[in-house]
Amino acid sequence: MPSKPNFIDAVAGFGVTFKAMFQKPITEEYPEKPGPTATHYHGRHQLNRYEDGLEKCIGCELCAWACPADAIFVEGADNTEAERFSPGERYGRVYQINYLRCIGCGLCIEACPTRALTMTNDYEMADDNRSDLIYGKDKLLAPLQPDMTPPPHGMAEGSTDEDYYRGNVTADGLATPREPVL
Ligand code: SF4
Ligand code: SF4
Predict the structure, then answer these.
(1) Does the beta carbon of 111 lie inside 6 Å of ligand 1?
(2) Which of 46, 134, 137, 164 is deepest in the core (most CB within 10 A)?
(3) Looking at ligand 2, which atom is closest to the CA of residue 62?
């Protein structure tokens, strides 16, 4: 049997509408005025550099193994003394993230042992074709700052890869030289 219409419930519904009429609108004018993101928003990735411009990525593929969406492809290669892109033995020769697959979970940045990979607040990555949504190093590498030297180049004089990992190398060279081993 149908229930009787409840007059109070009907009026209460209009009450919600009436209250909303006097609240400040929260409409965002996108794309004319993109709003701010949450502080820890997971946007486009970035491959970071050390202060002298060398790349932090060592091509270890841990990020690719951690990715649940199989969105990352890494191909590492050996640094040589003639052509060095990162401290230590290896660097990421090919690095790709497929943003058609990425779900923004951030597991890749947790897995990275050198903090080479982080995520920015940039979310404007829409495109009209599949291939442009596979980002390579050209789009992911952090821009060179004015005091950085573009790789390939040697490590700071007297430094080891550990000095880089410990943050002892600045754009001017080894900041805190290690004690000599006696
Ligand atoms: S954010 Fe998640 S889905 Fe996207 S590349 Fe990283 S691990 Fe994969
Ligand atoms: S981004 Fe980090 S985890 Fe991924 S290959 Fe480079 S160093 Fe390894």
Answers:
(1) no
(2) 164
(3) 3
Report the nearest-CA residue for atom 6 of ligand 2. Answer: 57
Ligand 1: does its nearest atom lie under 6 Å from the Cβ of 108? yes
Contact criterion met (CB below 8 Å) for 32 and 69: no
103-126 pLDDT per residue, tens: 999 999 999 999 999 999 999 999
5 assigned to some structural domain: no
Tokens 């404007």, residue located: 124
Q: Is 39 a domain residue? A: no
Contacts of 125-131 with C-beta under 8 Å, sequence gap 24+, read 125/43, 125/44, 125/99, 130/100
Assess if residue 122 is contained within a domain: yes
| DSSP letter, residue 30 | T
Q: pTM of the full predicted structure? A: 0.85
- What are the pLDDT digits (tens) for 27-61? 889 989 988 899 899 999 999 999 999 999 999 99
Query: Which residue has the CA at smallest separation from atom 7 of ligand 2?
Result: 57
